[in-house]
Design brief:
homodimer; 16 strands; 11 helices; FAD/NAD(P)-binding domain; oxidoreductase activity (chains A, B); Amine oxidase domain-containing protein (chains A, B); alpha/beta; Amino_oxidase (chains A, B)
Chain lengths: 362, 362
């Protein structure tokens, strides 16, 4: 298996080893279906899900497509490494059939039976430790789920109907502008302050921890609109939220799905690709777009689809330039700041262990 | 707007008029992208969702595709007619983002804001009349929803966990063979008999009516496995079942989505089509498949995708022949036997009215 240069492992005997084996790593990292100096129909920047699906749709429809990616592997924020036969998810992990866009890809590539349910009750150490200030107590995962669902409902219930009235169409783009503006003005901390007196210390701690887990940042850095979107995506219930966020993952791992999309695109003969090329600039002039990598390599196309995430968008120079607000948002770096660590333990039957800390206790 | 020959209207002044105006009607009904006697890459039989999506995927990927349909319109069992500016859904109506395959098409064609919620409480006549033998009483729709959810849960709860244990992956194909065989042996009537003594007469009537509505037949003709599938698809809750089955429809109507898929396929230049051609036979010989219509017209292709529904499958002669069991199931004609009637009324504010009768009271 090919190694990505990302990530590292530590073992008592071997110490630190950099890089992880993954079927998501692309080797050799570049391939040009015809002359690399040709004018492509489209250059797609970024090989995460958005970029992969765009490249597949374009190349299968006969467009000469170049996929440019900074990393040495597929998947962007999601990928898995296989070590001793176990698939460790290194980023976004859980997917579900209530996520229609990704599930369509799961189904399209025949992975509809390739599931693992990650919540398996019954282990010896099957409990949640809830920490509140100086107090600590163990509760069952059922009690934890009830507690988290209940407090998230209070957090999001802006219409007395679990947000079902005011946010009817979860993927719709036309949220009532009045509500959108009002909610977008609040951080999760602001909203916590509005409902703080309705919650016990334990409830508040659980809610703060859940927000940290889902937003990957402290609540003052997470927009309230995000939390409302999660709630709507989760069918306006704690159970629904749990099912899309923590329930099922692909048995063969996220990189398996990336690989299938990528190979489908490559099989058309229309896909060229360049991995390991961070993009420095995207310049649109005289009807042609030039994409230039940090090492000076440049490609031209009639169109560009740029899928780089918000937190690195400001590192790319666009001409004409992006809206000032977008660049500012990118520089704020408010995106997910989590790190993911897998620890294999010996001893009693820890099937899995997670830890969340509310702000100030990280 | 073009008329389909299907359906009819009646008005006090104009009497009966056959055929309905719909953007789903295809006119002219045939088009051949090149010689109609060419050998196609694929012939797709049936222009419902399955056939439309197959034709679109094939033609956009450069395959010479012929779409053959018995009716004069797109959509098969789903379509809408527009009369005096109102979109009347004539078949399958409700869709939701928890149906990933159809929702991907909604999203792909930019219809993510094109929704109507069909359950709007607050009208003067906003209640449900529950009829049990000789008794009748009005309950609120909330009470109705609670009642139906509660009884459907009893009907489907085979594992003490709302079927979440034994039917984990709703689109998976590998249901435990033991359970599948056991459940597939029961009709909905058989299952009703197992739980009858747990239900009040009202609960039993509500459950029977719901089964009739969803299965489009009497409970002894509906496989229990179908009901379990609905329950799983509905997230193992009454609310979830209601949301996928009765909640949201496309404002512009089902035929709008069919039209967009069809026109996308046609825009490739690879799609030929023949509407108004019921297929008589599909014969696979010497590496070529011949599809012959009832009027004797025949086309040849390297492959055929046949999407005709089960209840008409036995009317097509296949060579080599289909499995005996499949033909037998088709001849039983156990598919949906519902008729759909829209009635416009004057007077108090009936926003909508539905009627369900349990067997023997139809």
């Amino acid at each position: 298996m090919v190694y990505s240069s990302e990530g590292f492992t530590w073992t008592p005997s071997g110490g630190v080893s950099h890089g992880l084996p993954t079927i998501g790593a692309v080797d050799p990292p570049t391939f040009f279906a015809s002359s690399k100096d040709q004018v492509y129909d489209v250059i797609v920047v970024g090989a995460g899900y958005a970029g992969l699906v765009a490249s597949r749709d374009l190349s299968t429809q006969g467009k000469k497509t170049l996929l440019v990616e900074a990393r040495d592997r597929l998947g962007g924020r999601t990928w898995h490494s296989t070590i001793n036969g176990f698939n460790y998810e290194m980023g976004g992990t859980w997917i579900h059939w209530h996520m229609p866009h990704i599930y369509r890809e799961v189904s399209h590539y025949g992975l509809q039976d390739d599931w693992v349910v990650t919540q398996v009750p019954g282990g010896k150490e099957d409990y949640c430790t809830l920490t509140t200030g100086e107090q600590q107590r163990n509760i069952s995962h059922e009690e934890e789920a009830d507690l988290c669902g209940r407090v998230f409902r209070i957090f999001c219930n802006l219409d007395g109907n679990d947000l079902r009235e005011k946010w009817k169409y979860v993927f719709g783009t036309k949220l009532d502008p009045k509500f959108a503006a009002e909610w977008d003005n609040l951080s999760c901390s602001d909203r916590l302050n509005q409902i703080r007196n309705q919650l016990s210390p334990e409830e508040l701690a659980a809610l703060e921890a859940q927000l940290v887990q889902m937003g990957g940042n402290s609540p003052d850095k997470i927009g309230f609109l995000n939390a409302l979107l999660w709630w709507s995506l989760g069918s306006h219930t704690g159970t629904g939220l749990n099912e899309i966020a923590l329930h099922t993952r692909l048995a063969s791992g996220q990189s398996e799905l990336h690989r299938r999309i990528f190979e489908h695109a490559a099989s058309t003969g229309n896909l060229s690709y360049a991995f390991g090329y961070p993009v420095k600039s995207v310049q649109d002039e005289n009807g042609l777009v030039t994409v230039t990598a940090r090492d000076g390599t440049a490609w031209k196309a009639r169109s560009v689809i740029c899928t780089v995430p918000l937190n690195v968008l400001a590192d790319v120079q666009f001409s004409p330039s992006l809206p000032v607000e977008k660049v500012e948002a990118s520089r704020m770096g408010t995106a997910n700041l989590c790190n993911k660590v897998h620890i294999d333990v010996q001893g009693p039957d820890y099937l899995s262990w997670g830890s969340l800390a509310s702000p100030g206790r990280a």
